[in-house]
Amino acid sequence: MIKTFVKRGALALTIAAMPAMTLAQEVPKFFKIVSTSPGGLWHTFGTQLADKLGKAFPEMAVSHVPGGSNVNHKLVSSGDAQMGFSFSPTSIEAWNGEGGFDQKWQDARVVGTFYPAYLHAVARNGAGIEKMEDLQGKVVSPGKREWSTAAIAMQILNDFGVTEESLSENGGQMQYLGFGDVTNMMADRRLDAFMYYSSVPSPLLLKLNEQPGISIVPYTQEEVDRILPTLTPAGAYVEMTYPADPYKGSAGNFPVPTMWSIFLVNKDVPDAVAYELTKILYEDADLKKFMGADPSLALEYATTSLKDGVIPFHSGAQKYLEEKGAF
User: Fold this and answer.
1) Which SUPFAM superfamilies does the record cross-reference, listed alphabetically (predicted)?
2) CATH of 4-115+261-323 among 1.10.357.10, 3.40.190.10, 3.30.70.580, 3.40.50.970
């Protein structure tokens, strides 16, 4: 249980704007947000969000720390963090105690969707990679070993016959890297490609496209039709179209397996805080500008694949979404 104290002043203004909410609101002394390692989209976004939420509740000490999709749901559900970023497949497995989770973590609640995470390979220019089969024999990273997203990436790589053993047998290597090491090794030309899962445009990919230069490895329709039914947990992935001309030198406009990045909060986060957090996420102009024109932080997609899912929405977040006609 998180320690709380009764907040006055700024909270009173918030409550005044939410007449249907109880006036007996409490606000945590501390509010921890867990994202991912520095360099990743979650981390960059989380830093901005922490600042904005802290300004909305100046008496609440908001902190932001690195995490990872495989641990964020557990940290939020256990109350060790009040908010976290996750991916829908990971959180579904955590809720059900499946996959890499040895128990059910059911004290997390959904706030809404963040962005569609397109699952694809990013190749360094000059590495000789134009299609997924070309990854064989190259130096490839699926992500850090402990990331659940690395397990998802490996499902896709394995579908194309790319494994640690096959890479080694063909003169390549599997490297389990975080985003910082990916950036450095791509720039040094010691890494040929990595699996990625993000929105468009991605700050990381914009940086890498400047040096050393990258291309987005496309899928064919036949490949996506083959891959989607094999990804677990079932029903957590959809087919979408990768945006056209996402980065200089990459055409885009191809089918791609997609999962949703989502926002979670602990069930004990007060309604007033969850309401204001949701409002910031879907209304703040700076955050929307940072995420670009992709269907990220869009109210029309806020409940996509989540509304009738196993994980409940937080009541404060649901109230905001209902008021906006998005629930």
Assistant:
1) Periplasmic binding protein-like II
2) 3.40.190.10
DSSP 46-98: HHHHHHHHHHHSTTSEEEEE---HHHHHHHHHHTS-SEEEEEHHHHHHHHHT-
Please give the C-alpha separations between residue 113 and each of 160, 184, 214, 261, in angstroms, as whole numbers.
30, 30, 28, 6
| Tokens coding 148 | 């659940």
Domain spanning 117-259 has what CATH number? 3.40.190.10
The domain spans of the chain are 4-115+261-323, 117-259
Helix axes 148-159, 88-96, angle to 10 degrees: 110
Q: Does residue 6 surpass a pLDDT of 50?
A: no
pTM above 0.90, yes or no: no
Which amino acid, residue 249? Answer: G
Q: What is the pLDDT of residues 61-94, one digit of tens each?
A: 999 999 988 899 999 999 999 999 999 999 999 9
Same fold, 4-115+261-323 and 117-259: yes
Does residue 115 register a pLDDT over 50? Answer: yes
The angle subtended at Cα 65 by Cα 60 and Cα 66, nearest 5°, is: 160
